[in-house]
Structure formats: C-alpha cells, structure tokens
From TrEMBL, chain B:
Keywords: Cell membrane, Membrane, Transmembrane, Transmembrane helix, Transport. Belongs to the binding-protein-dependent transport system permease family. Pfam families: BPD_transp_1. NCBIfam families: PhnE. The keyword Transmembrane applies. The lineage of its organism: Archaea, Methanobacteriati, Methanobacteriota, Stenosarchaea group, Halobacteria. GO terms for molecular function: ABC-type phosphonate transporter activity. One of its GO terms (cellular component) is plasma membrane. It is a multi-pass membrane protein. This is Phosphonate ABC transporter, permease protein PhnE.
Automatic annotation (TrEMBL), chain C:
Belongs to the binding-protein-dependent transport system permease family. Residues 80-262 form the ABC transmembrane type-1 domain. The chain crosses the membrane at residues 21-39, 84-106, 127-154, 243-265. This is Phosphonate ABC transporter, permease protein PhnE. It is a multi-pass membrane protein. It comes from Halobellus salinus. It is found in: Cell membrane. Keywords: Cell membrane, Membrane, Transmembrane, Transmembrane helix, Transport. It holds the Pfam family BPD_transp_1. One of its GO terms (molecular function) is ABC-type phosphonate transporter activity. GO terms for cellular component: plasma membrane.
Length: 276, 263, 270
C-alpha cells in the first residue's frame, strides 16, 4: 500500500505547490485525484516517485520510506511504481516492443539494455501484455506511427511490464478524445482488478473521475479539501474544490474530510494561475 | 492622432537605421575598393590568359589517370577518418556544450570555447599546424580535418540535444533505469537522426576540404595538384580537377542518400 | 487468463537494412574500411614520439607570439586590411552577380532551359574549393588581391544564388500575379512582385556571406591570391613560428569580429 503523510513541495521560486497532503491508497482500489489546474495534482504524483523532489513529509510504499532513498535504492523503489504520463512520453523513434520492454530496464544490465537483450520471460510477457491492451501485431511499429489512444496503451503496457505494486497515472486522458479516454480508463481499472494493484489517477474530467473511481480526492491550492466516495461529490464539494467556496455551516455530508488547517487560506484564487 | 495625408512605410528611427546601414555599406565598399589598388589592366588581359590556360589544359591527360587513383583514395580516407575522429570527439564536447546536459556553468563555457576555437581556424591553417608537428602526410591532414570538424559537429549536435523532449527521459527514469540506460533509451534515439545527418553532411564538406589540404603538404590529391601546377603540367591539372569534381559529386550523392535514409 | 498459444520468447529489433546479416555485413565493411584508412596513415610509435617532440618545440617556438617587430606588425595590419577589403568587394560583386542567377535558377519563374542553366552555374560554382578557384584566378590575372576577389566572388555565386533561388521558390505567387494583373512587364513583375518579398533575405544572406568571405579571404593568400594568407605562409616557410602564432591569433580575432557583426546585424534585420 501507498501511504503519503504531510507531503510538501515548495519550489525554489517560493511557490508552494503542496502544503502538506496526506493520502493512503490500498488494496486494488482506484483513487481519482481531481482539482483545478495548478492545484498540485501532478506535483503530488511526481513527488511519490520523486521525479519531483518533495521538500517535506513522507512517502511509504509497502513500509519502505521513499523520500530518503539515494541513487540505487531509489531506482529499485521506482521499479515498483508504474507511471503513465499525460503526453505518453514514449520513445517516439523506437518500436512499440522496445518501449514496452523499457519497463524492464530496472532489471537488466546496462550492456544488455544497450543491445536490446531482454530475458525470454520478459519478451513473452511483453507479447502477452500487448495483446491485453489491444495492440497485438504492432510490436514492430514505431511509436510515432501510432494514434494517441494507441500510444497511451503502449504507455500502460510499459508500466505493467514493470510488475508494479502501484500505478501512478498523471492525466491519462487529457490528450485523448472522449471515447478513447473511456477505453483507456476501462483498461486501467481492469488491470487494477486483475493484477490486484491500486491505481492513483489524477484527472480533471470530473465525470470520468466519479464513474471509475472507488474514492475521490479533491485538491485545491496545494491542500486536500475533499476526500470521499464518488456519490459524495455533490455541487457543494465541487464548488469548494473548483471555486474555493466556503462550506456552509453543517452542510458537509458524511465522509467529507476538510483540510484540517485553516480552510480560509485555501480560498484564494492565486492557485489557479500557478502551473504544476 | 495619425496623420492620414502622408504615408510612410517606416518609423523615422527605422529609416535612420536603414540609411546608416546603407551608408556604412557604401563607405565600406568605397574604402575597400581604394585599399585594394587593383590593377585593372590585368582584368583586361584576364579573358585572354584564361582562354590560354584552357587551351593548355585541354585535352586532359588520360594517361595520367592511373596516377590519380591512389591519391584520390587517400583523399577519401582522410575525409572519412577525419570525420569519424571528429564525431567521436564531438560526443563529449556536445554534451558539455548543451545547456541541459552540461554538469555546471564552467563545463558549459569549456564546451563553448572548444566549439568556437575549432570553428574559427580554417582547415588549411590547422593543416599547416599539424604539418609542422607531424611532418607532411595524410596523418596531418586527417587531424586537421578532425580538429576543424569538432566545432561544427559539436555545435549542431549540442543544439539537437537542447531540443530533446525531457518527458521521454523522465519516463525511462520512472521505470527505475539508471542514468546511462536513460541516456541510451531516452536521449540517443532522439538525437540519432541529427547525429547521422551531421556526420554525413560534414563528411561531404570534408571530402572537399581534403582535396586542398595537400597544398600545404597534408596529403591527398592536393599534393598532386600542387606539384602539377608548379611544373605547369596543365593537362595533368585538368585530369586532377575532373577527378576532384567526380569525387565531390559522388560524396554529395552518397551523403544526400544517407540523410534521406535516416528519419 | 488463458492464452491460446505459447507466446514467442524472442524478439529482435527490425533493422533499417534488409535483414540482420546485411546489417552486420555493413558494419563489418565500415570497420574494415576504417582500419584500412588508419593503416594508410602509417601511424607508428616512432612518429608519435617525434611528433610529440616537434609539438613541444613548436609551442616553445610560438610562445610568446611576436608583437614587437615594427615591420612585421605593418605586414600583419596590411594583410588583415587587404583580407577584409577583399571580403567586402567580393561580397558586393558576388551578390550582384548572384541575383540574376538566382532568378534564373528559381523553378517557379524561370522557363526550363533558363532554369537548368542557372542550376548549372550554381553547381559549377559550388563544386570546387575556393583555393582551387583561387589558383586558376592567380594564373589568369596574376598574383594579388584581384585573384582573391575573383575567387571569392565566384564562390559567393554558388552559395548566394542557391539560397536566394530557394527563397524565390517559396514566395507568395499571389502577390506576383497581382502585379502581373495590373499589366506590368516581366521585369516590372520581378521588381514589384518578387524583389520586395525577398529583400530582407537578400540583405541577411549578404551579411552572412560576408562573414564567410572573411574566413576565406584569410586563406586564399596561401596560393598567392592576396590577403593575410600569404604572410602566414611566408612565416611558416621561414620557421618564424612566433609570428605565425601572432597571425593565427589575429585571424581568429578578425573572424570572430566578423561573426559578431554578422550575427548582430542579422538579428536586427529579422
């Protein structure tokens, strides 16, 4: 399970992207993180595998503290976290197979990586996973020959080839059309169920978040302002997440967790302008 | 506010700027013309002299063709080895000279310095220097070509490194790969087309350059050409010129083909 | 989940060549060729040792660069000034000659026979190195700056006309047709429909070419075509290595100044 406690990120410019966010993701649940642009969703996910270095707080994956790890230890920890990106981040000029197999890079020697020599098991599994994400027969295509939806499937295949303990998914659908978005979300939740791993998705389409998630978390201005089951995400909650409205006295439905410290500060508009 | 009765294409500052520029150009031309003190009578006799030269050159000395082959091969060797050396050395130099891969500001400046030092000295001057050091021969020529090419290759490769998509590198890092693997998978494929393009383009340029470094004794067909000119063996000169033309055209075709092949 | 068959356990990267045997054959051929090239260089330990000694001697002979002898300084200044003057004149002459050639070599406005003539002139100019052209020019008009100007102008045509022709091929033909529709003659169409569109490019390219011509003007003297190159070769022949270094440093300085000016002016024009 992933357990994040009081995660903070202050950029050297003084921008506070995360002001102490805590979150647990367990079992095989799908957790959607929603919030306006600049709320800190991407920063949160990137701090978990330390593509962005957090400035405070702790991240634990199955009891292993990630934040203090150095070079080799961090690389070993990253092998357990599959990441899927908004812009797919495939190696455009390599084949689909090389992209998928790159998920195993944490396990092969540099020399074998250079020669594109991977274990037979990995290759067999790569074929299997390509079949599973619906890209059978595309292994020798170059990534830049594929459509957006297909590329995102390659990205997913790369992440599952890692045999991760958790999938971190950063805006998987914002470069895709609505129909493809649904197909990608279906695939992600299916994998979570079949492989029995949790998925942390940050997403800005609220309807997709509600439809696919087991739990919804709302971020605003670097703070968690909502956490609860999808049905609890009512207009009041949305208003609070997206427009920073004060919660009317006693109106909060059960399950809603408001950020403990000073909600008044979270009600500023400047967060909307900040890019993650 | 605006006076619609007059129409002017540019603002007054722009016009003054243009006039100053034109004035500088005119003055520079006039002064240069004055300084050169060209004797125009030579210009008058030039066509006659030129035709005379052509007459003495034609027909090319066919019997001499055999003697041209070996220096021609040496020329190609110089171009290829020089380019290969330059490309090898430009890998570290371009990594230093690219803003996103250089370790710190001093290494960046070092990279930039190597690039501009190599570029601002002409290949024939490098050839002179290496002839002094190593004696005349193809080795001096190869090194001259290599050293001159480092700057050119490194500059272009560094530019393509600066333009890579960092997301691809990040994605590889996120799988737990080490930094060398991240470079092999994340950076190399992205700069490979530029790399091969630069190498073949520079090779093409180097074939031309290697035909003339022989003038200062640095090997290749230029040595032959220089000797023939000094002995006024004009028919041999024409043979050599035709051979040079041939090899330049072949290298241009090959280089264009290779660059098309790599996307 | 049940797969219908055992998935393949092997995969190899598709190659740009026809198959992997061809790929290895090509790599082997390249390796053999490089070894052959290196073999032909006759590199021996002996040469490297002598070379190292010579290099140390050369550097000791070069440093410090010679700047104290008055007549040498005069020679240096004279050569540099001549080089720069040659580059200016060659650029002007070359550009003036290039413009008609560029129009000839633009596929969209020139008739086919004219087009091929224009292309031919460009290829002829580009094929031979400036030093070879300079040698021929020296034979035709004698030793001196005139030969250098001729050689550099000739080389300018190939460069300038090629790039300008490409620019002309990219122009907006609508503007040209609009001028033609007013009843303008062919020359007037060029003047009003084409020249204004490519004028910034002409200025930018001229300055760029001037920058290149400065570089070349410093070396054509090696074959007697004027400029600092002759002085450089003399100092080399007379083993006057400290003056040799002074000249090289001066050449680097003048080339860098030229590049700075060219970059600055082109930046301002755009």
């Amino acid at each position: 399970m992933l357990s994040v406690t009081d995660l903070q990120k202050t950029y050297s410019s003084g921008d506070e992207a995360l002001k102490g966010v805590s979150l647990d993701v367990t079992g095989n649940e799908t957790v959607s993180m929603i919030g306006p642009s600049g709320a800190g969703k991407s920063t949160f996910i990137r701090c978990v595998n330390r593509l962005t270095e957090p400035t405070g707080g702790s991240v634990e994956l199955d009891g292993l503290e990630i934040t203090g790890l150095s070079g080799g230890e961090l690389r070993d920890a990253r092998r357990d976290m599959g990441m899927i990106f908004q812009e797919y981040n495939l190696i455009e000029r390599l084949t689909v197979m090389e992209n998928v197999l790159s998920g195993r890079l944490g396990y092969v020697s540099t020399w074998d990586a250079f020669r594109r020599k991977f274990a037979g098991d990995d290759i067999a599994r790569a074929y299997e996973v390509l079949d599973r994400v619906g890209l059978k027969g595309h292994e020798d295509n170059r990534a830049d020959e594929l459509s957006g939806g297909q590329r995102q499937r390659v990205g997913i295949a790369r992440a599952i080839l890692q045999r991760p303990k958790i999938l971190l998914v950063d805006e998987p659908t914002s470069s895709l059309d609505p129909e493809t978005s649904r197909a990608v979300m279906d695939l992600l939740t299916e994998i979570a169920a079949e492989d029995d791993i949790p998925v942390l998705i940050n997403i800005h389409e609220v309807d997709l978040a509600v439809e696919y998630a087991d739990r919804v978390v709302g971020l605003r201005d670097g703070q968690k302002v909502f956490e609860g089951d999808p049905p609890d995400l009512d207009e009041t909650a949305k208003g609070q997440i997206y427009r920073g409205e004060e919660i009317p006295e006693g109106a909060g439905p059960a399950g809603k967790v408001v950020a403990a410290d000073a909600p008044g500060e979270a009600v500023t508009e400047e967060g909307d302008l900040r890019s993650t | 506010m605006t006076d619609y009765r007059t129409w002017e294409r540019r603002t007054p500052q722009q016009r003054v700027g243009r006039y100053v520029l034109i004035l500088i150009a005119v003055v520079a031309t006039a002064v240069s013309w004055q300084l050169l003190q060209i004797n125009y009578s030579y210009l008058g006799t030039a066509p006659v002299e030129f035709m005379d030269l052509v007459n003495r050159m034609y027909p090319p000395n066919v019997g001499y063709t055999g003697a041209v082959v070996s220096p021609l091969i040496e020329t190609v060797h110089i171009a290829i080895l020089g380019t290969a050396l330059a490309i090898l050395m430009s890998i570290p130099v371009s990594l230093l000279g690219a803003e996103n891969t250089t370790p710190n500001r001093y290494t960046f400046l070092l990279g930039k310095f190597i690039i501009s030092a190599s570029r601002s000295v002409n290949v024939i001057i490098w050839a002179l220097v290496f002839v002094i050091v190593l004696g005349s021969g193809a080795l001096a020529g190869t090194l001259a070509i290599a050293v001159r090419s480092i700057g050119f290759c490194s500059k272009l490769i560094a530019e393509s490194i600066e333009e890579i998509d960092p997301g691809q590198v990040e994605a590889i890092q996120a799988t737990g790969a080490n930094s060398v693997e991240a470079a092999i998978y994340g950076i190399v494929p992205q700069i490979k087309p530029a790399f091969i393009g630069v190498a073949t383009y520079r090779w093409d340029i180097n074939v031309r350059a290697s035909t003339i470094i022989g003038f200062v004794g640095a090997g290749g067909i230029g040595v032959e050409l220089n000797t023939s000119i000094n002995f006024f063996a004009w028919q041999q000169v024409l043979t050599i010129l035709i051979a040079i033309l041939g090899i330049v055209i072949v290298s241009e075709v090959v280089s264009a083909y290779l660059r098309r092949k790599v996307r | 989940m049940a797969t219908e068959q055992q998935p393949r356990r092997e995969w190899s990267r598709p190659t740009a060549f026809y198959n992997h045997y061809v790929k290895w054959a090509v790599y082997a051929a390249i390796a053999v060729f490089l070894v052959w090239s290196a073999w032909n260089m006759r590199i021996s330990l002996d040469r490297i040792v002598t070379g190292w000694g010579a290099a140390v001697g050369l550097i000791q002979g070069m440093v410090p660069p010679e700047v104290t002898t008055q007549f040498k300084n005069d020679l240096l200044i004279e050569g540099l000034v001549e080089s720069v003057a040659m580059s200016v004149i060659a650029t002007i002459v070359g550009v003036l000659l290039s413009i008609p050639v560029a129009f000839m070599a633009a596929e969209n406005i020139a008739p086919k026979p004219v087009y091929w003539t224009g292309r031919g002139i460009i290829t002829g100019s580009r094929a031979l190195h400036e030093l070879i052209i300079a040698i021929i020019a020296v034979k035709a008009v004698g030793i001196g700056a005139l030969a250098g100007v001729i050689a550099l102008s000739y080389k300018t045509i190939g460069f300038f006309a090629k790039l300008l022709a490409e620019e002309i091929e990219d122009i907006d033909t609508g503007q040209m047709e609009a001028v033609e529709a007013t009843g303008a003659s062919r020359i007037q169409t060029m003047l009003f429909g084409v020249i204004p569109q490519v004028m910034p490019r002409i200025v930018g390219l001229s300055i760029y070419r001037w920058d290149i011509n400065i570089r070349h003007s410093t070396i054509v003297g090696i074959v007697g075509a004027g400029g600092i190159g002759g002085t450089l070769l003399n100092s080399f022949d007379q083993y006057d290595y400290d003056f040799f270094l002074t000249i090289i440093l001066a050449i680097i300085a003048i080339v860098m100044i030229g590049e700075l000016i060219s970059t600055y002016v082109r930046g301002r024009i755009q």
